[in-house]
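S1.2 Input.
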Amino acid sequence: MALWTSADAVAATGGTSTRDWAADGVSIDTRTLAPGDLFVALTAERDGHEFVAQALQKGAAAALVSRRPDGVAEDAPLLIVDDVLEALGRLGVAGRARTQARVLAITGSVGKTSAKEMARTALDGQGATHAAVASYNNHWGVPLTLARMPPETKFAVIEIGMNHPGEIAPLARMARPHVALITTVAPAHMEAFVGHGGLAGIAREKAAIFEGLEPGGVAVINGDLSVSDILSAEARRHAARIITFGTSAGLHHRLTDIRVREGATVGQGRAWRTPFMVKVATEGGHFALNALGVVAAVQALGADRARALVALGDWAPPAGRGTRETVVIDPAIETETIELIDDAFNANPASLSAALAVLAASRPADGVGRVRKGRRIAILGDMLELGPDEIALHAAVADDPAMAKLSIVHCVGPRMKSLHEALPDRLRGRWVKDPDTLIAEIERLVDSGDVLLVKGSKSIKVSRIVDAIRKLGQRGASAKEGERA
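S1.3 Output.
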């Protein structure tokens, strides 16, 4: 059964179709487009209309456009609308309206993508589950996710993000969640909230997710925060019920003990006096806390808590958000490895502190490599959009308690220079303006037995350092293959 027919899409968008067609999916990118997709010609860095001909050549069922692009045949299947982004929004609204799915919406300054993936994992075995891919949480990501939702979906998980005030409420009203979860509120996108209440303003913006709740909807909020009262006050205006989670006494869902061990984190929890255990297959107390919030949310959604807890036991974070992997430096010697923590997708003071705590708790290996003593090494890129206090916030990382357990810190980017200057001599590694300089030196900066954290905001591109580290072992493998040849 088609996801969208031309008749359904015309009814949803108010557009005009040049001919009948049926689409199995919705795509905004010709690189990932599958045959049978409806291609949406959004305008971002480039005008999507430039790629319509290519999309049709790759087998797109039709293209959603505001004009007939050059090089496209007269009889090409096109859905022509006044505004492509607005039409995508209408398609998303229609996709949401035609399903009986129970919808969970998630936001937060830190952890919303991981929580979304946790919720997907927790729900997947309990019915047809639909969730956003990657971090599709903005003005086009939310409607795209809704437009892709099959009508027979039982559970849907929608991630909602923001960069500026006023962005969350419209997306929440589009998603119409039955349950809304706020993972945490922290200094992120502070630059956009200068003059809008700072952290309290961010809390109110996050709480705007509750404006989209369906009648009888449930708000799930982190009760450990300095702004939890703000979240609760906003939730009371829109939610029929509020569920709190965290570590503080008196919360509905509470972690009373968190233990991090190799490859896993286990938390002892209680929910309305009922004890249970939360486990995730990765290291970090913040992951266990997010899992607790997800458990509360999916239970409120109508899912089975016990089955959700079992499923979460196998959950690990998506790439670039705290994934751990072993990089083999010398394929001929199995002990010649580096443990890599890839957290290069996003960064703010709260998420960086959580990542440093994971690094501090790691166990380097001694007796291998050049140094013969395993080290905990951090490579940290700029944190962006922190507002006028950004330099002080970067420098303050030097006072993080986790620093006592680290061996060396390398800094990347102009803002991270302030951290480099604030570090004690024993921790101060290299400071470079851009990742390329450090990539050229990476082979001598790391060694077998090390545990290495790479973290920074996406646009500083420290993910390229992650790629360079992964290639260290490949170079070794290529050399060995050459010798055998």
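S1.4 Remarks. The chain has three domains: 4-83, 99-312, 323-484.
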